[in-house]
Specification:
homodimer, alpha/beta, six-stranded parallel sheet, 8 helices, elongated, DNA-binding
Chain lengths: 198, 198
DNA sequence: TAGATTGTTAATCGATTAACAATC
DNA sequence: TAGATTGTTAATCGATTAACAATC
């Protein structure tokens, strides 16, 4: 079993290992821990949990590590997501290519405001048929806070199974729908507080 | 002392309480826990940790709770941040107003590419003088991954005390500089995995 | 007084770290 | 064989949950 905490570190390992791949075939947990500023036992435990195994005195095979991490992160199992709310954040996410690295395609957004529609932005009425046609599993909510709940309900009706909500608002959803709240402002606010402590 | 976990829940309380403020003067931990889908003891512990206190049989004063949360979140102590990397994500964050809620002003971005410069986007050469003049404390990195480390170093030279890095790359920084890594792709990838479990 | 709700103390759970045995 | 490195078992730490006493 891969713990949530471990899962959070996998992309960091992945990025580092991809850089190292061209330089070396094997790498030790000690080296990784030093470079990424983690405990060395933690690195070994993390590697063990994704069923990578190393050889004493040698270390771990870099390519195998990369493969294991990508398997766990599901880079290979593709899925599709849509955005509702084509404001600045919505559009930025739409055009941001980084989700592809994890096997997630985001190519369409929906909005109810006429002048936002066009190109990859479709009218909100087309959400349900689009989701049915493309078997969309993930919905990304970037609408203003007071429209979030309604948007979520529409997504559920459209057959979406998981919602990524970019606001501090708690959504009221039926069982079986996965949700993750992403609060960028809070994240930055947390950093601000770290300044005083340092 | 406010734990990191508690800190993460404060904005959710805040958003909910602001909505309730117009309806009621006092609220019980039971109600809050039910609405936000949290443990009721957890709610009381969280409230206790931000030194809010309630009255048995009555509950907590909503306005006082809001004040306490805002004090802890530092909505009142202002600070300024700059963005380096005026790509899509950088620009979206620049135009996104939500940071203001936590007392953080983000009004300028910097880039090294000539045709991105203009309006609120200044040439990267002006970062250091700008930071000195405006006493900028936070730097937001939205440059491509291979330019992140250099950008971070430039920020440190410019007197920035905390860095918010929107990439999976681990930065190598001197002691005393706070860092927070934000990996949106990973966050979405985590949600994708929850689908299978549900 | 009785009952609802707070607030504290103890138990549980999960993740990290430390110690050390296994192995190439 | 000796030494480096893995991998496991036990100890620690922090956060959540349960039990219950305090109080309005």
């Amino acid at each position: 079993m891969v713990s949530k905490a471990t899962l959070g570190r996998l992309p960091t390992y992945l990025e580092y290992l991809k850089r190292q791949r061209v330089l070396t075939k094997v790498i030790s947990s000690t080296t990784v821990s030093r470079e990424l500023d983690l405990g060395e036992v933690q690195v070994r435990k993390d590697f063990a949990s994704i069923s990578a195994n190393g050889k004493p005195k040698t270390g771990y095979n870099v390519s195998e590590l990369i493969d294991s991490i990508e398997t766990v992160l599901g880079t290979n199992t593709k899925c599709e997501a849509v955005i509702v709310g084509a404001g600045r954040l919505g559009k930025a996410l739409l055009e941001y290519g980084g989700f592809h690295d994890y096997g997630i395609t985001v190519k369409t957004a929906f909005d109810s405001t006429q002048d936002k529609i066009g190109g990859s932005v479709l009218p909100i009425e087309e959400l349900a048929p689009y989701c049915a046609l493309h078997q969309v599993e993930i919905g990304i909510i970037t609408v203003p806070q007071d429209a979030a709940q309604k948007t979520a309900e529409l997504m559920v009706k459209s057959g979406i199974k998981a919602i990524w909500c970019l606001s501090a608002l708690k959504l009221d959803l039926p069982d079986g729908i996965a949700v993750h709240y992403e609060n960028l402002s809070l994240s930055l606010a947390n950093l601000k507080q770290k300044i005083k402590i340092n």
